[in-house]
Amino acid sequence: MTQRGANVAIFVAAVVTLLTAVLAPSAASAATGPSAPRGAAPGGRVVIIGIPGLMWRDVDAKTTPALWRLTREGSAAGLSVRTTRTSTCPTDGWLTLSAGQRARLAHGDCALPPTPVLPGQPSPTGPPPAGGAIAPGWPAIKSDNAGTGYHAQIGLLGDAVHAAGGCTLAVGPGAVFAAGDGGGRVDRYVPSTDKATPADWARCRLAAVDVDEVFRAYINAGVDPHGDQVPVSDGKRAAAASAADRRVAQVLSQVPAGTTVLVAGLSDTGVNPHLRVAVAKGGGYRTGLLTSSATRQDGLVTLTDLTSTAFQQLGLKEPQQAVGSAWRSEHSGDSTAKRVDALEDEDVAAQAIRAVQTSFYWVLFATQLVLYGIAALALRRLGNDPRSRARILGGTRVIALLGGAVPGASFLAGLMPWWRAAHPTPVLICTVLGFAGLMTGVALAGPWRRSAFMPGLVITAVTAAVLALDVMTGSSLQLNTLMGYTALVAGRFYGFGNQAFALFAVAAILTAAWVCEYPLRHRADPDPGGLAGATRRAKLAALGIVAAIGLLTVAVDGLPAWGSDFGGVIAITPAFAMLGMMITGKRVSPVKLGAFCVAGVALVLAISWWNSRSANPTHMGRFWQDLMDGNAWDVVTRKFDAMLNSLGYWPFTLALAAALVFLFFVLARPTRWRAVSLLHRAYQHSRTMRPALICALAVGIIGTLANDSGVVILSVAFSLATPLMLAAGVRSLEIDLDAGTEQPRPRAPRAASTESPSA
After folding, report:
1. Is 296 left (phi over 0), alpha (psi -120 to 50) or beta?
2. Which of 196, 256, 511, 747 has a C-alpha 20 to 30 A away from that of 332?
3. pTM of the prediction?
4. What are the CB-based long-range contacts (under 8 Å, 24+) for 425-434?
5. Using 50, 70 and 90 to split pLDDT, how confident is the model at 108?
6. What is the DSSP letter of 290?
7. What CA–CA distance (Å, rounded) separates 79 from 325?
């Protein structure tokens, strides 16, 4: 017992010590935070022009000269407008701007915002101020959003301006919902831009402007008898964008000098979400691209970032309830036309991946299910002819390795601009298969192809390395890829999404286990006995490998600068601790497993505490703040409910069930060849195959319980581990049969056989 405890203590101490070494240099840089735009001084002046529905394909030098000039002189980006629903309506966008958190207008039609309550009209929140207005239905809107999972505090922006002694100006109905304070009030209301005077613009530090011509074109087009939006022609859309541009020009001609102008395409125009326009000029924004700490992607910002930008430019402290990050300007030497084309291309990529992402999982899991069936039939029909047997086993192995390479290849496909093709989906399929074939070719190219585990090691090592290098260099392959995330969903913009985490964690586990084969094989006692036959020095070397890879895996997955994955650390830590014990021949009891899980929770909380001290904390740092404020339970409950709801994701649930059935009937159930299962054969040819599989399953199960994607985690884990285990088992059978160490068992007459298949 003392020896086991010492080994566990050494492993945990090594992880903590090395992690501290990694965290220390990063903490200093994180504490400084990203630089703010220069020139933002207290008492600044901001005008926010909301143009619901505006896209970058609407902007050109001829049709929209004012917006083109703003883009040429300022910074631009694609704007993710996702709020609480798949498609964002104009009032949802305005309310999100008001709260700095995803908000909504519940039970309302996706129409233009209603006319505000003016002085002399009754209002449940009291009379509107003279010359001002109140947003209609404000108490119900505020109560509804406070009760959602996001707990949006409507009126946050307006309250902050009033608390600082400033006033608010709303031009147009939608602007009242953005600039209204906690009571829905704005100090000055003007129905449209052509009725605003220079005195109106000079009066208030914060002005919001509703320019609704683009969205109005869709309202005027109406819906068909089935309730679907009637398409708006390119000509009518261009005319609407031109009319909106004239409104923008009116604003720009009257605002006082030194005003920061922020333009946002606030909402969608139908059921299909798109990236919208974001432009900033003044306040230190120079010619280039916008980014923020929330996205870490040049040319991509979010709607909640707009609220944070307004706070910064006004010189006000951003309240904790606002979750965005201020827009920053990144210089670009590209021409205006080239920048606009690149931002339009960003939306094209997002649309292309959205069209195929769900079907990809269906195809991936269905293909693997077919593969499992073919493998089962092939293995049951092995004959005594060596050449026929070699073809069946060799073909099954190649297909299994190809299936295991597809998840990693789906990220490598992001290196190619497949979405620009005339038919992007076939090009994407060919690209993924091409990279998967390349990985499989490398796995079978060298002398290591004769090994039962080395080809799988090549695939897992490449997969883990690609994902690790990607998140360490900006997460460019995570965005708009099949197993990554998209800006349209806006769940993540950097680091590891849940699918990528599952793939990375399982690849790292399998890599670490199979790398340990080297010291365990070459430094073992002469008496073979699996892990029991390994020398103490070999076990220590293997433990060092597990600790080193485990530390790197935790750092890549959990550090806010890289993977920034909260639930992943909770799953990876106990899985690697289990692996370290199992490869050294130690038994993992439920008590020890529970202790490892507690260590994972403690580790991720330590990272969250460290991140909360930075100037721009990620969701990990904000969780620590919620924990200190007593609000963390709401976050945990929301994620747990999402995890339970994931059982309804039929593509993943069915794939998981199929993988479990395959594990039993094909890999774990004994074959007709001396009643030994493929997994057992793989265990005989690899000292670490069993720990590898068990720990891969452990990281998938714990990850399922610790993440809101739930069953998706385990399904993705199986999509990598199962085909590679099949390949290892098939190769092990092939080695045994070719060596003559296994002979087919004579079949007994069916009537005379009373034994079960697993007897």
Report:
1. left
2. 256
3. 0.84
4. 425/352, 425/355, 425/356, 428/352, 428/356, 428/482, 432/406, 432/482, 433/406, 433/409, 434/409
5. confident
6. E
7. 13
